[in-house]
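Now for my pick.
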Amino acid sequence: MKYSKNVKLNTVLNQIETQIWSVGISEIVNYMDEFPYEPDYKIASYGNTLIYYYEIRNMYTSAGYKSFMGNKISDSKMWEIYKRQVGYVARELVKTFYISNVADKEMLRNDTANKND
């Protein structure tokens, strides 16, 4: 999916999207309902995403972020950035795939009901 014009950011967000898809869209919605005030809806902690700091740091550096090389950004700051981006990707996936799917089903249900009248 195209998240940003920034190539590095788009690379990272698409990698996060790949990780999140393993959870499944209905489970993402459940996390969002259960933990609405967490920046990542607890998906980063419990949802089969990257959990080791070196994996997260490697993802950012392989995307071209030099500020993540050599511990220029602390692990805790990096974790906060990662959680915000996981939350952003989760919201975009739900908006794109879940809400539109629910709306399509509702439209189909309404069309079927109108034809039966």
